[in-house]
Design a protein that fits this description.
Blueprint: H1 3-7, H2 26-36, E1 55-57, H3 60-68, E2 75-78, H4 100-104, E3 110-113, H5 120-125, E4 131-133, H6 140-153, H7 157-177, E5 187-191, H8 204-211, E6 215-216, H9 234-240, E7 244-247, H10 250-253, H11 257-261, H12 270-273, E8 277-279, H13 282-285, H14 292-303
Parallel strand pairs: 1-2, 1-3, 3-4, 5-6, 5-7, 7-8
């Protein structure tokens, strides 16, 4: 499984199948459905009511969220990419090439995935296993909603709501600390790997940058076939002369300010000359859980004080 396939998760959402229960379960079931109905699952098996005790997470983002809302003791296994927090029970389960039989051996009462494998939910459903597909959101509102969805599905509604509210407040406060340039926009290049794949404003991370008033050079070449993840050329990037370069490939591809500056012609890019090549944590940059706050903080620090080129005409 390549990093590229892992990064290019589908962003579409599917409705939640209705859960059933006795009259005594009605209130709790309605909470689950009300919070989760716009998220995530094609499960034909009703989500468990109360607190499921044997959760398997096949999504690093979901794993981080589960532990952040206090559902860690309910988690019995997580996929091999779920490397945070340290206490997560990491296994060799693969989220991208899943083995249904291996998952079933854990006898889970709930499996949470990121929805990138379209066949997995139906395969697990046939075994009577409920599935929650927590797909990549399109914006910060989707992040907060998904945290509350996972909280509802795991019986941690109050804790999830508290975390969601806290994140919103802190991110709003961070964004308010950033003073946008009086003229123009900060132009940026967001690098997913060293073959110059990028993320346009149609993606979650791109939408996040847009909230800060930044201009994404990848938007110029994104189209219906690239689905938010166009592959740029070195010549195009140099020609666009971005003010900031954000590297989300430091771990996978060993990229940093020095390797970027060594690329032919890149030493003349404004971002390189001004020391604005920012190394992001690959994991944090590719997930949409509680650590989104860390990503926002890193970006705000990176663009504070940047003066865009006044000669550039910015597209609306």
């Amino acid at each position: 499984m390549t990093r590229r396939r892992i990064l290019f998760a589908a962003l579409s959402l599917v409705p939640l199948a209705a859960a059933c229960g006795s009259k005594s379960d009605t209130s709790e079931a309605s909470k689950v459905i009300a919070v989760a109905k716009t998220t995530t699952t094609s499960s034909t098996v009703a989500l468990p009511l109360g607190k499921p005790s044997r959760i398997v997470s096949l999504s690093p983002t979901a794993t981080e969220t589960l532990f952040a809302i206090g559902a860690g003791p309910q988690v019995i296994a997580v996929d091999s990419f779920s490397n945070f927090p340290a206490e997560a029970p990491v296994t060799d389960l693969s989220a991208y090439e899943p083995n249904v039989e291996a998952i079933a051996k854990y006898q889970p009462d709930l499996v949470i995935t990121d929805g990138t494998n379209t066949e997995l939910a139906s395969q697990l459903n046939k075994l009577g296993i409920a599935v929650l597909e927590a797909k990549a959101p399109k914006n910060l509102a989707g992040v907060y909603q998904q945290i509350e969805t996972i909280g509802a599905a795991t019986g941690n509604i109050a804790a999830a709501g508290k975390l969601s509210t806290k994140m919103q407040d802190q991110i709003i406060a961070l964004i308010k600390t950033y003073t946008k340039p009086t003229a123009g926009k900060v132009r940026y290049y967001y690098e997913l790997d060293n073959t110059f794949y990028s993320a346009s404003s149609k993606t979650f991370v791109g939408a996040l940058m847009a909230q800060l008033g930044m201009f994404n050079i990848a938007d110029k070449v994104d189209n219906s076939t690239t689905a938010g993840y166009p592959q740029l050329t070195p010549e195009f990037i140099v020609g666009e002369n971005p003010d900031v370069i954000l590297l989300a490939d430091s771990k996978c591809c060993q990229q940093n300010a020095e390797t970027v500056a060594a690329r032919p012609g890149w030493s003349e890019i404004r971002a390189v000359k001004a020391g604005r090549v920012v190394v992001l944590d690959d994991d944090i940059a590719s997930r949409w859980g509680p650590r989104v706050l860390d990503l926002v903080q890193t970006i705000v620090l990176a663009i504070t004080g940047v003066t865009p080129d006044p000669a550039i005409i910015y597209e609306s």
